[in-house]
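Troubleshooting: if your tokenizer reports a length mismatch, compare your output against this known-good record of 370 residues.
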Amino acid sequence: MIRKTIAVVLAYALAQTTSFSQTTVKEDFKPSTLNQPGQEYPQVNSQGYARFRIKAPKADSVRVSLGLGGKGGTLLSKSDDGFWVGTTGGPMDEGFHYYNVNIDGGKFNDPGAKNYYGSVRWESGIEIPAHDQDFYALKDVPHGHVQQVLFPSKSTNTSRRAFVYTPPGYEKESSKKYPVLYLQHGWGEDETAWSNQGHANLIMDNLIAEGKIKPFIIVMTYGMTNEVKMGGMRNFKIEPFQTVLVDELIPYVDTHFRTLTDRSNRAMAGLSMGGMETHTITLNKPEKFGSYGLLSGGLYTPEELKDQPKAKLIFISCGSKERPEAVKKAAEDLKKAGYNAVSYVSADTGHEFQTWRRSLHELAPLLFKN
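Known-good structure output:
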């Protein structure tokens, strides 16, 4: 019986190996849309494979590490011309990915790719074209503006930075006021993430042009998360950032922009650790926010909300490769308790920006409804 079992296992493994080895990688590679001007590499093909080419003639080993934190990797092979070339072992998920290049143990960025702030450093970025990328494509529609603001922060004894998206036509109007979404990045990122990696402004522009949402302002600021090392999130203290957000940034935005300042017209959402911040701050300061969004960033339960002012909307999302059943169950439990709760699961993605782009695209039309 044992021999028979072993034989079956070996046959299955051989079949899987043979199937994988027979996968043909299409040679229709094209430069990534996130490459530096004029750079041919990295490249992606129609199947989602990525190919890298790094010049390091004196190196002994070159590996490309993909994903948040640089986990996993693709070992490159050296050519006679001093370039190291390699293709990922399988197709990557659609959307944006961070990566870096490890050369003989040192961590570097790919000189062929643009850089994006993630993993507490500026990382190289690559884009795997998505089948649904039209919703964040740059189109010939009216565009809003993303502007940098510096706001005073007595609690940190400095000026802090935020980026503010205002909808198309905001500057031409003189009296119209808008709802506001405070939108937080994840661990290792900063206030540039939602515009650069997430295309939040393009998502908004396209939804507004299609008449699918009520225009609103988005405010993005640094969540003060990166002082905490990966794995030590339980030690994160929310109070310093909560003070900056609630007592300093919100008053600044309400003073310098035409905003609707009541609770029902202010929302907070965040991805990953930004979701954790959203969860904690909305529970601590429910009088400030009327709608909540957790994007791969935890769950709400009816028990923790029962003594709070009722939220207009609770949105919970994740990728299908994360914890979709937990997200769906949390939303169902909230609905049974009488809350307007919505769950969303991004198909075939994990803890990554394609999940969060899609989540914002689903969340935005639900916000600030009468």
